[in-house]
Amino acid sequence: MKLKGARYAMSASLLAIAIGWGLPGYAQTAATEAEAETQDIIVTGSLIQRPNNTSVSPIVTLGEAAIKEAGTANLSDALNQIPSFTVGGNSATGGQGTGGRASINLHGLGTNRNLVLLDGRRLPASDINGNVDINILPDAIISGIDTITGGASAVYGSDAMSGVVNFKTIRSFDGIKLDLMDSFSEKGDANKFNASLAIGTNFAQERGHLIAAFTYSKQDPVNGSARSFFNDKTPSSFIGTGTFVPSATNAPNAAVVQGLFTSYGVTSTVSNLINLGFNNDGTLFTQNGALNYKGATNSNGYLIVGGNVRMPVGQQIQFLNSVKRKTAFVKADFDITPTLNIYSQFMYVDLTVNTESGGSLTQFPTLTTIPTTNPFIPANLGTILASRPNATAPFLWNARYVGIPDKNWDENFQVQQYLAGLKGEITSGWSFDVFTSYDQSVHDQTMHHAVLKSQVQRLLNAADGGASLCAGGFNPFGDSNARNLSDACEAFMTKDARSQERLSQTQVQGQVNGSLFDLGAGPVQLAVVAAYRKNTYSFSPDADLIATSGFAPGGNIEGVVNTLPVSKKSISVKELAGQIDIPLLADKPFVHELGIGGAARVSDYSVSGSITSYEFDARWSPTPNLLFRGSYQRAVRAPNIGELFSPPQGNQLVIGTPPGSLGDPCDVRSTARTGSSGAQVATLCVSQGVPSAVIGSYQFPTTATGQVVAGNIGLTPERATTYNLGFVFNAPRGSGLLGDFSISVDYYNIKIKDVISAVPGLTVLSKCFNLDGSNPSYSNANSYCSLISRDTSTGQILNVSTPYLNLGQLQTSGVEAQVHWGVPADFLASSGKLYIDTAVGWLNSYKVQLLPGAAFLDYTGVSVGGAGPGAVPPRATPEWKALTTFGYRSDALGVGLRWRYQSGMKDNSSVLTPNTASVGVGAYATWDMFANYKLTNAVELRGGVTNLFNKSLPFVASSQNGTDTALYDAIGRSFYVGIKAGF
User: Fold this and answer.
1) Residue 615, helix vs strand vs coil
2) Which terminus of the chain has a smaller tally of CB atoms within 10 A, N or C?
3) What CA–CA distances, in Å, run from 500 to 413, 894, 904?
4) DSSP secondary structure letter of residue 609
5) Coil, strand, or helix at residue 915?
6) How confident is the model at residue 180 (pLDDT cuts 50, 70, 90)?
7) What's the rounded Cα separation, in Å, for the pair 728 and 15?
């Protein structure tokens, strides 16, 4: 079949090759017409292998040229510019040792509800929840990316609820390809370098093909201190001076406290339950109010915020992680006979991500204490301590370990995949393809400068302040003392904490394709697939991270919630699937083509049992240039290893600081306490564990608390219903105004039931304290309140339990449109064209039902800046998103501008606490500029500017750091240059 004759079929299948990639995709196709004349066009999203098969699922295609034009150093950032995608994990989401993985999130339905493939086969998983880190992909030989933006479980299996992303490699080439790119910000930082080399050869008279590809990339980190936006963000009350935390049940004498501050010249009243900090001269100050504070006010990491002494975490965070990646990819195939082909593939990835989150805190129980015998206790503090009813009792302290380098994590991922297969003809019209693969991922995590509570406690308890244990001992009283820590004491107090997780996946799959009969419009096609897959997981945390290390319920490492090991666990699945395509009419009046199809899949899981998915579809082309299509699908997702077997694991739950964020509802600054029901909330807080003596002044000291997530083997599969309805129009090719015009419009509607999710921690707090009407009696017996644990001596939240459950439902719907329009530009060059490509996404609805029978929460047009990469709801659900390219291209030159837009959003609090909603996020748009020039047929230069007009970061109230660096550009105006050469 000539490619020219198949142009419409291919265009319909690839959504008119739109989303800013249309013209490059068409140019590439035309350039390879001679080679493609005899090749079938196999459409992503279908098991049917017919040259004229058109997709009934919306498919967005990103071509190689468009990937380069995006000016990004990795594939995930290029994909995330497309309206179909919500930002999942990227290099700005790796704080607290979470890896900075690059994960994909279609329609905001979660990173593990879409399936990621390489040449139609599953990629290795990167974590316990089955997410795929696309950093492992061999981008040197990626020829394009197809994205199915609707459910595809019946065709591809579990996880494809929101769609499928299929990365396609080039089949063969003979020669060498070299590609280099370097980018940097106008401030001279944020450098990203990427180099790739591909070598290919054909041998044995074109019967064999061999390709080897190698990639090296490096990304420099960027710290919050390098951008003024973060100077005052996340004003933590954990400070380097250290603070004395009075006990409500053993409080110092009020008159003694007041008398001491009167001697400093303070005339205002000072509470005996307020945290007291330590000046370098041994005097005390009030942290809230900064009375008698003599330290830095806008330097050395300190800032006075609202009259209070704070150390903003925004200045300490590494908001863009350091990444180093090396990949090797080899694939080969050989025609044993004209009808039998053997193929193999090998992938190796070595990926190291460094994440950093600032100085360690004396945070999460059990906390260290300081005895009154400590020789470094300042005299003024000694006077306060002596006035307590139990004068000799140890006391609590808060501090940030400023004398120890910031805690950071090196996370090394080594991934290997081995694959071999055989394909060929069975008989005329029938073919087969069978393969087996094995992959493993070893994730070694090292937490550097981990502060050990047991060692700190030894130093604090020592009669000589620890001088006999390490040079100089440990003096935590005052910033200058805390920073003057000897190397010996730093080594004594810290360690490199090492943990390891291992994942593996075994796959065996066989597929048979063939023609059944012909109804007059073309052969009825059938595909049958049988598959087996097994996934295993194990986790060995450092001994000091587990609760049995001596500081239960927390671990022995400061500022980190405890975790537990996972012995080797596995799940397996056996699957049988079939797909049929039935052409009904062809070349009739008003019916250029009419066809229907369907697919079904039965999956038998070792833990959750058997589940069935299916789909029905139809397509109608009244003319060769117009296609109407629609499909109905029942998609499924079985629970993964993490959701089934994960033991109670601790991590951080970001709650923010009130009143700007939800925070701890018991905090006197919270809208729960300042609202009309403040007295009832206070009573609930006391019954929950906040001491009555401090309820009038209680403040939660930071922006995050502990969260405990646990698996559940009683989970059942999720079930989704998906509708797609749309059309594709390609104007007849010609020289007129619409001679190069195409448009596609598709409506999607996805409803998921029995959603597997950990109960959102912020939702637990909101519902317990009746912020949405869930606990009108303000009873501590409420089921949500039972998930909250507090330290009864201080009132602080210890952790919030968020177990995995089959909760409520997800519902989302919207319209996505793609338009390409090009006109000749002969006045510039004989081959010149001006073009506009645009992709627009309109979100009609995004709703979440947290529990069966509960009311749906409307998250349409809402910003959830503190959400994790795969969280539901996601970090942003703007009603409108668009990506538009205005460009010129000829055989030698290409230039253009790209406009990225998303509409304004309400803050998350408008859903959780609608009566006291925080400010939302305004509309956000950036412009990029790109250019490429062919020096010769073999050498091409490219360059560009991203965020051309240096659009500043927006304020995001629901984010811990006041913005969302994963979604918005925190770097500012940046430049990139690249060269591609082929030999």
Assistant:
1) strand
2) C
3) 10, 47, 42
4) E
5) helix
6) very high
7) 7
Question: Taking CA 43 as the corner, what is the angle to CA 38 and CA 44, rounded to the nearest 5 degrees?
Answer: 140
Q: Residue 466 contacts by C-beta under 8 Å, 6 or more apart in sequence?
A: 458, 459, 460, 473, 474, 489, 492
Q: Which two tokens stand for residue 257?
A: 């406290």
Residue 336, both tokens: 């044993």
Phi, psi of 335 (to 5 degrees): -85, 105
Q: Could you check whether the bond before residue 659 is cis, i.e. omega within 30 degrees of 0? A: yes
Query: What residues does CATH 2.170.130.10 cover in the chain?
Result: 4-175+197-216+320-346
Distance, in Å, from the CA atom of 259 to the CA atom of 82, rounded to the nearest integer, reads: 64
**Residue that has been written with the tokens 């089934």 in this structure:** 644
- Average per-residue pLDDT in the chain? 88
**Amino acid letter at 154?**
A
Q: Which residues contact 967 (CB under 8 A, 6 or more apart)?
A: 87, 865, 875, 876
CB-based contact 377:478 (threshold 8 Å): no
**First-to-final CA distance of the chain:** 30
Residue pair 434/424 in contact by the 8 Å Cβ criterion:
no
The rounded distance, in Å, linking the Cα atoms of 449 and 410 is: 11
Q: Could you tell me which residue, 152 or 323, shows the higher pLDDT?
A: 323
CA distance 694 to 703: 19
Q: Which residue from 351, 373, 568 is spatially nearest to 459, judged by alpha carbons?
A: 373
457: closest CA among 408, 402, 403, 394? 394
Q: What is the rounded average pLDDT of the residues 733-751?
A: 87
Question: At the fourth CATH level, which superfamily is domain 4-175+197-216+320-346?
Answer: TonB-dependent receptor, plug domain (2.170.130.10)
- Write the single-letter amino acid at 151: G
Q: Note the pLDDT tens digit of each residue in 651-677.
A: 778 787 788 778 899 999 898 999 899
Q: What pTM value is reported for the model?
A: 0.86
Place of tokens 């003096």: 475
* Tally: H helices and E strands in the chain: 16, 48
User: Is residue 249 classed exposed, middle or buried when 0-12, 13-18 and 19+ CB atoms within 10 A define those classes?
Assistant: middle
Q: Reduce the DSSP state of residue 547 to 3 states and report it.
A: helix
Tell me the C-alpha to C-alpha distance, in Å, between residue 42 and each of 13, 39, 45, 170, 360: 10, 9, 9, 14, 54
Count the alpha carbons within 13 Å of 606 in the hemisphere toward its beta carbon.
Answer: 13
Look at residues 410, 496, 490 and name the one whose alpha carbon lies nearest to residue 450.
Answer: 496
Contact between residue 209 and residue 170 where contact means Cβ atoms under 8 Å apart: no
In this predicted structure, the answer to whether residue 537 has a pLDDT above a threshold of 50 is: yes
Specify the amino acid at residue 653. L
Q: CB atoms < 10 A from the CB of 327, how many?
A: 22
Query: How far apart are the C-alpha atoms of 893 and 895, rounded to whole Å?
Result: 7
Length of the chain: 983
For 829, the 3-state DSSP assignment is coil
Report whether pLDDT(833) > 70.
Answer: yes
Provide the pLDDT for residue 53.
40
